[in-house]
Structures are given as structure tokens and as C-alpha cells.
Write a sequence for this structure.
């Protein structure tokens, strides 16, 4: 019995169309991998630029919700025929209207200040694209960082990649590293925001 | 007369640039057109071998550029077809012996007296590539249905797009294995064309005849029975502006394959 079924299976396999035999079609794996890699080849999205995009997104979204920045993920993924930019945002909690209002206000003023800043000193804005390590150093240097836990500092550093000229200014101003803080003159507002956020 | 200068390129090595150059050149010459093949792979020349002309090379492209001979003296005529000639690469020099300007100059001179100037480009995207494309106004990108070859082809297409003088870039898909495509183990022609997004010039099936034709120094287009030869002849016709349908590669050839195919069809009906 076993012998016959063996023979039958062998014969049947020979006559079966080949596509039924293969497990997962390796060509679709190849096609998908290739599409992803070409997407990255074709655009000039270097890891550095991706990181900048990530931090800017954090900045934007933090105005509306409180995020777990460490767990935020930004990746290219294959979605059927298309390549998608997937953003996964772990939300700790939503902010209330007042907080959002304050954050937006702070952001607006920060932008305004940036424009004034760049008008005054062109060099400052040119430096914008320079490395982050420089930035971290400055934060530590301003003496404020002593009592701040490392964790907070990290968050601030990653958050700060976008708006450097303002950070630079902090050197001379008193500043408190906090979530919403990215300006110097709006310290009061942002501190307030943080307090509210911590409630 | 102003001939067409076509560069045959790929990015990746070993996908069949030189075989393609030899075969398209031979096929065009067989159609009565005057063709010059230029091997620009300095230091790694092979086009002479594929054409069976390796013993007749006296002067190379570097000799022409360094003015040790006239351009006409360096052209080696094909044994069988007087319409076809080869300008060989120097084997003892490297890519830096020539610059883009000099190659463009040679192409410009050759196209005055020939219908086609086919430039066989070396692998890579460096100097050798820049030299080879300098005089061309059309490009044929050769690739195989493999990831690495396609990725490199994509890079080359991107670079060709930046060249103002190149006004046509077409794809030649080489070493296609229909049985693997059927079993979903190889990317199909549509997959590759969909990814690279340039017009398709030809599909060349994998053919063991290529090996024997290389051994003999005789391009496979001269073999009337070879499928790859037919595919290359079709490519030549398309270059000449004719509309030739792509070969149907699905037909199984051997008796066992036919039987297998017939029975599997039967089974589907049942």
C-alpha cells in the first residue's frame, strides 16, 4: 500500500504544474525587496535626513499629543504595490485644548523668533544642518543640565535637531529643558505647559 | 552620412553587454548596414574574442588616440561580413588612457562613414562608463532578471538620464529563463519593465548555444536555429524601426516537457 502511494505521489508530482510545487514564490520576495532598495537608491534619503525628518515629526506631533519618543518608529514598508512611509507613534495621552493652544503659540513665536534670528545672523541658520553632538555639548555647557536626568537630555537633544539657532541662543538665556521647550524667550509659557502636562 | 551611435551598458558585469554588442552588430551588418563596434573596456577586452577576431588586431583605440596609427588602420574587418568592423580596446592599458572627449571625437568621425557605431561599455559607473557614453545619442541597458543586475541597471538609467546627448534609453532583458518565471522563481519580463520603467527593446532567452558560439568566436545570430540568435535578430530589426513581436518563450521544447505540459493542462480541466 505504502509503496503504491509513494509511486503515485512521485508520478503525480511530475505531472503537477510547477507553480503548485514551490512554497512561497521567491520572485515576489525579490520584487518587493528590490522595490524598497530602489526607492532608497533613487531618493537621497540618507539615515541623517531620515533622522531629521523623524525629529521634526516628533516636534510637530508633540504639540498635540504626548508621545513616547523613544518608541516612535519611522520606516519604509512595502504596502502591496506601493512603498509607504510608516510612522508608528506610541501615544501616552492626548493633550487638552489649552495645552495644545499654548504649544502652538509657543511654536509660532519660536518661528517668528527664528525669522528675526536668521535676519540678524545668517551664520546661525547656515549652521543649522550641522551635527547634533555640537548641540548636546552646548546644552550640557549651559549649566542647566546638572540636575536633569540623562533621559530628559536625550529627549531634548533629539527634539532639538530641527531648531538649532534658538538652542544656540539658550546659551545666554536661562532655560529649562522640557518637552515643549524649543525657544528661549518663551520659557515661561513652556514651563507652564510642562507643568500642566505633568499634572 | 550620419550614423547612429549606440552605447551598450549595464552597470553590473557579466550580464551580457559584450555578447549583446557582438550580436546586434553582426545582425545589423547582415542587414546590409555598415557597422563599427568599439570595445571601450580597456585592459579587459573581450569583444574581439566573441567575434573571432583576436588574432587580427594590430592597432587599438589607444593607438588611434595617441596617434600611432590612423583611425582607418585600427578598424579590423570581420571575416565573413565586410560591413562589420571592430575597433579593439588596448589590453595593456587601463581606463585612464582615454578621456571622454577623445572617445566622443572617435565616435563623431566613425559615424560619418558608418550607419551604426556600437559602443561596448565596461562594467561600473566610473571613468570607463563616462568615456563610453560620451559620443552616444542612444543607449541600450542590458540586464538580467536578477536583483543585483536590476539595481545596477536602475543606477545606470539614472546616470543616463543626466546625459543631455542621450535621447533614447531602452532595455534589453537577457538570460531569461521561462521555466523559472513560470514557477515564480524568477522575476518576469513585466516585473522588470515595471520596476525600471524604460521601453523594452528585446528579451533574450538563456541559451546554452551562447557558450558554444563564444567558444567558436561566432555570434549566435549566425545560427538560424538558436532561439537566442532569433531574439537578437529581432532586436536588430527593432533598432531599424520595424515592429517585431516579442518571442513567445512559453512553448516547451522537448518531448517530455510537451508531454508534461499537455498532461498538466488535462489535469486542470478535470
Amino acid at each position: 500500500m505504502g509503496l503504491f502511494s509513494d509511486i503515485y505521489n512521485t508520478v503525480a508530482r511530475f505531472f503537477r504544474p510547477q507553480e503548485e510545487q514551490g512554497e512561497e514564490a521567491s520572485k515576489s520576495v525579490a520584487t518587493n525587496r528590490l522595490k524598497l532598495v530602489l526607492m532608497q537608491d533613487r531618493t537621497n534619503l540618507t539615515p541623517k535626513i531620515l533622522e531629521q525628518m523623524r525629529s521634526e515629526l516628533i516636534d510637530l506631533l508633540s504639540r498635540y499629543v504626548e508621545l513616547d519618543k523613544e518608541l516612535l518608529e519611522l520606516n519604509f514598508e512595502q504596502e502591496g504595490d506601493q512603498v509607504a512611509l510608516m510612522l508608528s507613534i506610541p501615544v501616552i495621552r492626548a493633550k487638552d485644548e489649552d495645552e495644545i493652544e499654548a504649544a502652538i503659540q509657543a511654536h509660532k513665536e519660536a518661528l517668528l523668533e527664528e525669522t528675526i534670528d536668521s535676519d540678524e545672523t545668517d551664520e546661525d541658520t547656515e549652521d543649522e544642518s550641522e551635527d547634533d553632538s555640537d548641540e548636546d555639548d552646548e546644552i550640557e555647557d549651559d549649566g542647566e543640565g546638572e540636575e536633569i536626568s540623562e533621559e530628559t537630555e536625550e529627549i531634548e537633544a533629539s527634539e532639538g535637531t530641527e531648531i538649532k539657532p534658538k538652542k544656540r541662543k539658550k546659551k545666554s538665556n536661562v532655560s529649562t529643558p522640557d518637552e515643549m521647550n524649543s525657544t528661549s524667550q518663551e520659557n515661561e509659557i513652556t514651563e507652564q505647559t510642562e507643568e500642566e502636562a505633568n499634572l | 552620412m550620419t550614423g547612429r551611435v549606440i552605447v551598450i551598458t549595464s552597470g553590473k558585469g557579466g550580464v551580457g553587454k559584450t555578447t549583446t554588442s557582438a550580436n546586434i552588430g553582426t545582425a545589423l551588418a547582415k542587414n546590409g548596414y555598415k557597422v563599427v563596434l568599439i570595445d571601450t573596456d580597456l585592459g579587459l577586452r573581450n569583444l574581439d574574442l566573441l567575434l573571432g577576431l583576436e588574432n587580427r588586431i594590430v592597432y587599438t583605440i589607444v593607438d588611434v588616440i595617441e596617434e600611432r596609427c590612423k583611425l582607418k588602420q585600427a578598424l579590423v574587418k570581420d571575416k565573413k561580413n565586410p560591413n562589420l568592423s571592430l575597433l579593439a580596446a588596448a589590453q595593456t592599458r587601463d581606463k585612464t588612457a582615454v578621456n571622454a572627449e577623445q572617445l566622443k571625437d572617435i565616435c563623431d568621425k566613425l559615424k560619418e562613414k558608418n550607419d551604426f557605431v556600437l559602443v561596448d561599455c565596461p562594467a561600473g559607473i566610473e571613468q570607463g562608463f563616462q568615456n563610453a557614453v560620451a559620443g552616444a545619442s542612444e543607449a541600450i541597458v542590458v540586464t538580467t532578471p536578477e536583483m543585483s543586475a536590476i539595481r545596477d541597471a536602475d543606477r545606470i538609467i539614472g546616470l543616463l538620464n543626466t546625459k543631455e546627448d542621450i535621447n533614447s534609453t531602452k532595455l534589453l532583458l537577457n538570460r531569461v529563463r521561462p521555466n523559472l518565471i513560470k514557477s515564480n522563481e524568477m522575476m518576469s519580463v513585466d516585473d522588470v519593465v515595471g520596476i525600471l520603467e524604460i521601453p523594452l527593446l528585446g528579451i533574450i532567452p538563456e541559451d546554452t548555444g551562447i557558450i558554444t558560439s563564444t567558444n567558436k568566436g561566432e555570434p549566435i545570430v549566425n545560427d538560424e536555429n538558436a532561439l537566442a540568435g532569433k531574439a537578437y535578430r529581432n532586436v536588430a530589426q527593432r533598432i531599424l524601426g520595424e515592429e517585431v513581436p516579442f518571442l513567445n518563450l512559453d512553448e516547451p521544447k522537448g518531448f517530455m516537457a510537451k508531454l508534461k505540459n499537455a498532461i498538466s493542462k488535462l489535469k486542470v480541466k478535470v
The interface with chain B takes residues 14-19, 21-22, 25-28, 30-31, 33-35, 37-38, 41-42 of chain A (CB under 8 Å). The first strand of chain A starts at residue 65 and ends at 67.
